[in-house]
Amino acid sequence: MRRISRRRLLGGAVLLGAGATGLTSLTACGNGGGSGSGSGSNLRFAWWGNPDRDRRTQAAVDQFVARADRGVDTEPSNWDDYWSRLATQISGGNPPDLMQMDYQYIAEYAGRGALLELDDYVPDPLDLSAVPEEAVENGRIGGTLYGITMGYNTFAMMKNLQVIRDAGVDEPDHTLTWSEFAELCREIGNNTPSGVFGTQNAMGSKETLECWLHQRGKALFTADGQLGYDPADLEEWFEFWQELAETGGAVDMETTSEALPDLSDWEVPSGRGAFNFHWSNIYPAFVDVSADEIGIGMYPQGDGAGAQPGQYYKASMLLSIPSAADDPDAAAELLQALVLDAEIAAELGFERGVPSSEEVREVLRPDASDEELASLEYVEFVEDKVGEVPPPPPEAAGRLDDQLIFFAEEAGFGRMSIPDAVDAYFQEATNILG
């Protein structure tokens, strides 16, 4: 049986907001009734989330309803139910007027003609001047705008500062390269008790590999949905982590594969390692489950003078209007309120990542928690260090994630040589991608 690592299980769930909420529908209307207030039928707004997101989103919608001449029926659900229900609604010609969209699927939905082109709504009512262009680009497919980024994040390396201090080394900054990172991790492993390592084993981590590839001018996928790198790249990546594990700098593959999926069992929160790779919006969660002081910083940089930026701004989620929406103009007004109206969008807080609008961020900044503020400041710090947004992944990307983990484990356990594991992965990828 192919094992899926805790990073696959937990990383996707946290980032995508999965997790059953126990809610299948919830109606929010300006007058508390089933029909809402104002003229015309109610707008319908659907999203996936969790109890905290549902509460925050409901509060924002309530504010919109209170000031607009239109009621809104809200339809929150968990991740799996959301997409199955949305597919049924769209195929049946009964989609919501406004819906939450994920970067993984926006190209697929746009390609099928299911999403409304939003360029005609810019700049009125969608004035995107306060949104970083890198964040706006997350919603463009083939040069056409199909989604507006609600919040965004970027790769972030979590750091257990106590482990770093105990090892007698300095906390690394944003100039750290991969070769320096390897040396640092080995030094931490050598200077700490048995069972404490420099870093997690990221051999099968898609996000970490993606950053490393970008620094070399490559990508996980091309614009036409094929792999954007060569077997030699993956072979070098596997060798980097295998050597780091064998020399005590990274956790061995057996420990990695058997670890619990709970975030508290990761290397940084548990104190068993100095570094973990994740996304910036998960930093507060690391702090919440850690007894030690936790820092946040960039992934290591590419070695050599020609290295390119590896990180980019990724939409944690977007808002899109179905092409078959009953009232797209009114849906655009609701979209504007939820993303760009400082008073209404502030109700959403940082739960969906750093808010896209600078005006919304400034409203939230004074009352942000220390962890939220650190995450916000980090995302702002890397603004001049991020690269272009990569093409959206193909529909089969999730299956390839699983295959990457599987063959990383095969190589890490020594059941296959690294060249054989890489060849097998590329064969699987060719079959999956067609």
From TrEMBL:
User: Entry's Gene3D superfamilies?
Assistant: Periplasmic binding protein-like II
What SUPFAM superfamilies does UniProt report for this protein, alphabetically?
A: Periplasmic binding protein-like II (SSF53850)
Matches recorded under InterPro entries: Bact_solute-bd_prot1, SBP, TAT_signal
Q: Which domain of life is it from?
A: Bacteria
PANTHER family for this protein: ARABINOSE-BINDING PROTEIN-RELATED (PTHR43649), DIACETYLCHITOBIOSE BINDING PROTEIN DASA (PTHR43649:SF12)
Q: Write the protein's name.
A: Extracellular solute-binding protein
Task: Please name the source species.
Answer: Natronosporangium hydrolyticum
Q: What is the lineage of its organism?
A: Bacteria, Bacillati, Actinomycetota, Actinomycetes, Micromonosporales
